[in-house]
Amino acid sequence: MTNIPMDAALVCASLLFVTGLAGVLARRNIIVVLLSIEIMLNAAGLAFIAAGSRWARPDGQIMFLFILAAAAAEGAVGLALVLRQNHSAKTIDIDAAGSMKG
Amino acid sequence: MTYEDSRPETMTILFYIGAVLAVISTVAAVTRLRIVHAVLWLNASFLSAALVFYSLGSPFAAMLEIMTYAGAVMVLFTFAIMLVGPGPDAALQERQWQPWPSWIGPSATGILLLAGFIFAIIKGVPGKTAGTSVGPVAVGASLFSTYLLGVELASALLLAALIGAFYIGRRNDSSDEKGDMQ
């Protein structure tokens, strides 16, 4: 049977997570910011899958399912907010959200 | 070829291929200036992640990754891009928004965090994966017995997101906006 080192799987998840974090911090395009958040959630799911695979238990995949539901909900609401901001401020610059005033 | 029939090194090779592809395409997705290119690279990243999931022995999660992330979420992003409608000078504007110094702080933060992660992983993570496949039967049986409450909560969350997205995204004219202010 095939045995993949846990170190490799977790380092891969860390790399994906850190890339998404840098994207959230650096980018100003609000759609790319949402996209980076999806990357971070996916990386967390990868860590759960690796942990579930370590002990051959289904719980890791179930946690991934819950992350999937959270990511879908977050994406739907986030993109509705993008359309809202694009409608009112005529830009997808995330800094323009600072002018909302309460 | 099923998971158990594969030669021992096959899944390991698949895992490393998927992991390298996932990291490369994710970096590309975050750094591309044209937003459609970014979304396409993200799709490649999700498909590579599905390969990684399969090689780790989670075929059900790999299938869900393709259906939900590479399918549904990607359609959501495509719709948003179509509705926002980036103009022909969108890439130029992005270049003005993202001069290269804007990456210094986030990259430094990310590298510090990554160093912490790798230190913890090298110090404390045990062993290797079990090397067996956990199929949809086991996942479903556990999901609808042990985690039944979580399933109900997830469905409530999705319903709340549906209503919230509908409320936030509804189209209104200027008279309605005045009503929102008060």
Run of helices and strands of chain B? HHHHHHHH
The coarse silhouette of chain A is elongated
Taken in chain order, the helices and strands of chain A follow as HHH
Biggest β-sheet strands, sense, barrel of chain B = none
Could you give the topology of this structure?
The complex is a heterodimer of chains A (102) and B (182).
Chain A: H1 6-26, H2 30-54, H3 59-89
Chain B: H1 8-31, H2 35-55, H3 59-84, H4 90-97, H5 104-124, H6 136-143, H7 148-168, H8 174-181
Helix pairs in contact in B: 1-2, 2-3
Give an overview in words:
The complex is a heterodimer of chains A (102) and B (182). Chain A is mainly α and 102 residues long. Chain A has a domain at 30-91: Helix Hairpins (Orthogonal Bundle). Chain A is built from 3 helices and no strands. In chain A, helix 1 packs antiparallel against helix 2 (30-54) and helix 2 (30-54) packs antiparallel against helix 3 (59-89). The radius of gyration of chain A is 17 Å and the shape is elongated. The mean pLDDT of chain A is 89. With 182 residues, chain B is mostly helical. Chain B folds into 2 domains: 8-134, NADH-ubiquinone/plastoquinone oxidoreductase chain 6, subunit NuoJ (Four Helix Bundle (Hemerythrin (Met), subunit A), Up-down Bundle), CATH 1.20.120.1200; 135-171. Helix content of chain B is 75%, strand content 0%. Chain B is built from 8 helices and no strands. In chain B, helix 1 (8-31) runs antiparallel to helix 2 (35-55) and helix 2 runs antiparallel to helix 3. The longest helix of chain B is centred in the middle third of the chain and has 26 residues, at 59-84. The relative contact order of chain B is 0.08. Classes of the chains: A mainly alpha (102), B mainly alpha (182). At the A-B interface, helix 1, helix 2 and helix 3 of A face helix 1, helix 2, helix 3, helix 5 and helix 6 of B.
